[in-house]
Amino acid sequence: MASPAPTANPLLVASLGFSCIIGIVVLKFGFIFILIATLPSIVAYFIDRDVHKSAFRVVLLCNMAALMPYVLPMLLAAASMQPYDAMSLMTDPIAWLVVYCGAAAGWSLLFLCSYIARFLVILYCEYQISRLERFQKKLVAEWGERVKQEQQSET
Amino acid sequence: MATPSAAQDNLSKPDRDSSAPNAQDNKLPTLISDFFAGYQPPGNNAGDVLDGRFRVDFNHPVPAYNTQTATAYHADDLVEGDSNLYALVCKPGTYQRHTAIKKLLNFEHKHFVMLKAAGVLMNPLNGTEQFVLIYTRPVGQKLSELMAGVSGRISESFVSRNILSPLITVIGQLAEMGVTHGAIRPDNIYYGEYPMLGECLSEPSGFSQPFYFDPIYRMQAHPAAKGEGRVEHDYYALAILTIYMLYGSNHFSGYTTESLQKKILKDGAYAALMRGKEPPEMFTDLLRGLLSGNINERWNYRNLKQWLDGKRSNIMLPSAPSESARPFEFGGASISSRAELAHYLFLNWNQAIELMRTDRLIQWVILNLRNKELSETLKKIKKIVSDASVKNQVHVNEQIMKMILLFDPEGPIRIGTLSFFLDGVDSLYLELMNQQATEELRLLSKFTELSMHLHWNDTRPGSDYVVPESVKQMLLKLDHIRMFARNVGYGFGHERMLYELNPNLPCRSPLCDKKYLTTLPTLLMHLDAIAGASYRSQEAIDLHLAAFIASRISVMHEIKLHQLIPHPSLATDKNSMALHIISLAQSRCNNLQCPGLAHWLAFRVLPVLDIIRSRTLRSKVKLVAVQCAKTGYTQNISEIIIHSNYAVADMSGFVKAIQTYKDNIQQIAFYQKEHVIDEYTKTVGHMIAKSLAYTGFIVIFIHMWIE
After folding, report:
1. Strand locations in B8-127, DSSP E?
2. How far apart (Å, rounded) are the C-alpha atoms in residues B594 and B42?
3. Percent of all residues in chain B with a pLDDT value above 70, rounded to a whole number
4. Of B130, B150, B442, B666, whose CA is between 20 and 30 Å from B331?
5. What are the domain boundaries of chain A?
6. Which residues on chain A are in Cβ contact (under 8 Å) with B667?
């Protein structure tokens, strides 16, 4: 179902802008790495029309989980005022592969879970229908066919 | 005894086995059948000995004493060893004069047959319980037979001393007791050494009288509706008896009821009955006095006593009752008196209605009768009759009736095809019911409903008129039963009016065939006794039974089962009504147990209960009803089926069930919709994915943190 276009929260935009400035100051090239690495999540944010942005969150979490082994040393070095070679990361194809595979795993997770969910939902609906039908039969047994006829006459 | 409240508690207990009721429902009729297979009701048949002393020998009829409504048999008094008795066994459905019976029971008079006992006996010849009157046998032979054997003329002194004198005494004594004989005629007078009046209680007063023995106004009335009459009517019959004895039985031949009525109205009773003959001097005063057309000149007991004592008054010859010099032409007759006019108006009812739409009669009254008050009343009647539409035929009839009463206040009430006296309404109603005269019954019912008897009150001559006791009683009854005429449901209508008018009448229901049941306990015991044979094929109630019970328990308003209104067919069902009415009757008969009747009602009402929609409730109500039947108190069944509020609960439960069924259908349709499944799938899928993603992220984060 199409959801209304998200409106920009000024506080969020401001805090995001502030974080970006801090990130650029502290991480320098590392910030550019993070920005490019989370590109799939950013794309997911814009293509997810859901109000709760569930797909974006899943992709973001998977993306961030894959980014964690590269970002954590960078943040620790920044915290201890140690220099960190972000350029080597930028040129490491394995790092890019890992990060983007993480994002891809997020999308795959969404895809797989929808199958599992459909199976579960169908099971649930079938159970509900049979429960209601059993109840209908009990109603007819207790009150007679007139319960049905009254229904039919109303319709 | 299981009380009604206990029965209701039973109903409110939860149903432990919801699958059982169906099987149980099928077993209930079998349970009832099993009950009847072993049920022996207590017998309540009338015996063959009345009051423990009078035995009727049904193999020994005595046709000489038969009446139109009763057959005579030999009877014995077992206590006193008196076999000089006879019993009049009254035909079922006939009227007996119960008020007079109470007064004349054991009344001993030399010149009157003594009524020794009255009650109900089983007639073994037809297996029917019948009302029986036990009389002492009159001495001698019938006067009519005696007369037939006499070749010459009977001596005047014999008639006076041996016939009239004793009879005047006995009639006077009866009058003192408030009883008129009403059956003084040669074949009901016996003569041995002295005359003896025969019985007069087995039929309505004057029912079997030859027409010429009745005064004109009793002659004009329906034979069953002459009312109790007055002592003057008996004296009038004595006058006719005198003429009969003087001139023989052929004296009246050639007369028919209609011709004699016309003759009397034209010439007066004396001239019409004497037929131009001059009576012996001895009887001139007597006959002129007793046959006088003028009510103020008519002889009473005092005059008769004086005559018997030898006093002679030289009474004027009664004149013709002409009141107008110029006759009024109507109905093919030249009418010259008001009584005659009333007679012809009744005989030509439709013409009378047409007549009242013109001024002809009013003009005649003004010019010839010179009665302004009467003419003013006639103008009012004319206006009502002229304005009335066809639909208001009843009101037109009422006005004509009123007019006839104005013209002839001494005569009977005449309306449509009916002519009757007020105190004869009870016997007339019974007679019309016997004849199934629907139109006449409807007319009489309207007469009662619209209180037309008030017109009779309004037309009484003079303020000193004393209303006879029997008429007073009837006026009270008519006021009381007015509301019963309007309703036609169970316990009302013609049947109810019949039992209210005739409180001693036995129940005439086909269920009580061959029985003479006049009280509620005997009726219930009889129904209990026939339950085993009738429960499968017959309803436990009909209009007569309902009316009889309603009359005995004084039900005043139409019976409606308000508690069953949610189930209209149950509320109006014959069996529900039967249960309600019989339970009311039983509640008036303290501690009278009727297990057979209770099972009968339960059996009949079980199929009706199928109207209850809830299977569980239905089974429970049926089961409890059958259990209650075992107590023998129909009130308990009634409490369950009529008075417990299950009908309301059933109705509200059914409405809820319909709503639930409807909601369920919508829910099923909802779960079957593809887009709903897709929506759920998306939501659940995202939820699972999010859960897994969060878990994965946290695990990696912790792992990294530890490293």
Report:
1. 49-50, 54-61, 70-77, 82-90, 115-123
2. 10
3. 95
4. B442
5. 10-121
6. 128, 132
Residue pair B482/B445 in contact (Cβ under 8 Å)? The answer is no
Same domain, B255 and B165: yes
B673-690 per-residue burial string, b: 16 or more CB within 10 A, e: under 16: eeeebeebbbebbbebbb
Number of C-beta neighbours around residue B334 at 10 A: 12
**What gap in Å lies between CA B392 and CA B399, rounded to an integer?**
11
Which domain, by its residues, includes B75?
49-136
Please tell me the number of Cα atoms within 13 Å of B240 on its side-chain side. 24
Q: How far is A23 from chain B (nearest CA, A)?
A: 20
- Residue B683: C-alpha distances to residues A62, B442, B496, B695 (Å): 19, 80, 77, 18
Nearest to B686 among A55, A150, A154 (CB): A55
Looking up residue B79, the CATH number of its domain turns out to be 3.30.200.20
A5: pLDDT strictly greater than 70:
no
Q: Is A111:B622 a contact under the CB 8 Å cutoff?
A: no
Is B301 found in the same domain as B282? yes
B267 and B150 in a common domain: yes
Report yes or no on B343 lying in a domain.
no
* DSSP annotation of B184: -
pLDDT digits (tens, 9 = 90+) for B321-362: 888 888 999 989 999 999 999 999 999 999 999 999 899 999
Placement of tokens 């000089």 in the chain: B84
Which of B605, B633, B652 terminates a domain? The answer is B652
Question: Is the Cα torsion angle A67, A70, A73, A75 positive or negative in sign?
Answer: negative
For a pLDDT cut of 90, what percent of chain B falls above it? 63
Q: Which residues of B touch A139 (CB under 8 A)?
A: 657, 660-661, 664
Name B413's bridge partners. B420
The position carrying tokens 């103008």 is B379
Do B599 and B676 form a contact (C-beta atoms < 8 A)? no
- Give contacts of A114 with chain B, Cβ < 8 Å: 681-682, 685
In a domain, B315, yes or no: no
B333: number of Cβ within 10 Å? 18
Whether A154 has its CB under 8 Å from any CB of chain B: the answer is: yes
* Closest to B293 measured CA to CA, from B260, B276, B316, B269: B269
Element (H, E) at B141: strand B141-142
Q: Are residues B200 and B257 in the same domain?
A: yes
Which letter, b or e, does each residue of B170-196 get, where b requires 16 or more Cβ atoms within 10 Å of its Cβ? bbbebbeeebbbbbbbbebbbbeeebb
Measure the CA–CA gap between A60 and A55, rounded to whole angstroms: 8
Q: Which of B287, B308, B329 is the last residue of a domain?
A: B308
Q: State the residue for tokens 């009721």.
A: B21
What's the CA gap between A11 and A18, in Å, rounded? 10
